[in-house]
Amino acid sequence: MDKENQAKAAPYDDNESLDSDALEIGGQVFYSRLFLGTGKYGQLSAMQSAISAAETNLVTVALRRMDAPFPAKDKQGNKKENQSLLSYIPEAVYPTKEIRQTVHLLPNTSGARTAKEAVLAAELSREIMETNFVKLEIHPDPTHLMPDPVETLLAAEALVNKGFIVLPYVHADPVLCKRLEEVGVAAVMPLGAPIGSNLGLSSREFLEIIIENSAVPVIIDAGIGSPSDAALAMEIGADAVLISTAIATAADPVAMAAAFKWAVRAGRLARRAGIASKGVLGEATSPLTDFLS
């Protein structure tokens, strides 16, 4: 058996795959392709456990949801440890004995209605969280939270020029994603369906066009409602997915986080393995008449 066939026949090692198939964005390496949001959890302790169960190493944090960086006081007026959102995000998770994944923060500009507001939010978050990464979100309509493509493009160009590593949340618009790529964003984050809807990949055909033509990582964000949606996203070629509502509002967020972890890994592995082509005609897996001779 030659070396190439020996390599193909080697036993699959999940830990080795996790290490060798890392995703790089803006010079930072991410071993997990499952990113998590931090909103909508009933308790911060549940969010903390879900992050660990998902074995993610990138979580988004909205600037407007961060508590003041001053310690609170108990009933006696004594200062106590600040129980802010950031205090519940673990510094690292341990998917294997060999790999220690640092949990990185991705501040987002959620709540910004214009490019000017988004740039200001990004600059504030860089000072507070000490990171150049920013998830750019601009949605002037508070009802449907649809991203504004014009303001997003303007803000993305301004933030790139200011040295930010920009990951813009946008419609599944192939033309817009290419324009954003041209101004220097580090990745694009097209929505699978309206944010918080859990409708899955309702924009699948457009997502596939974006994935096929993108020279930067494509992270499908918003609308993914189940682990099977996440697996499908990875099967069609997404580089990662960002999940928030589907985990945070599940009956058991921690178990759901684990389910998404395995779904993302399965979808990614299937994509790398080469998914068999589909057809409408039956085709036998073994010759039908050989036994007669």
TrEMBL record:
Quaternary structure annotation from Swiss-Prot or TrEMBL: Homotetramer. Forms heterodimers with either ThiH or ThiS.
Thiazole synthase ThiG domain span: 24-287
Similarity-based family: Belongs to the ThiG family.
Pfam families tied to this protein: ThiG
Ligand binding (1-deoxy-D-xylulose 5-phosphate): 196, 222-223, 244-245
InterPro entries registered for this protein in UniProt: Aldolase_TIM, Thiazole_synthase_ThiG, ThiG
Any one GO biological process: thiamine diphosphate biosynthetic process
Cytoplasm recorded as keyword: yes
Annotated active site: 135 (schiff-base intermediate with dxp)
Protein name as annotated: Thiazole synthase
Organism: Arachidicoccus ginsenosidivorans
GO MF term (any one): thiazole synthase activity
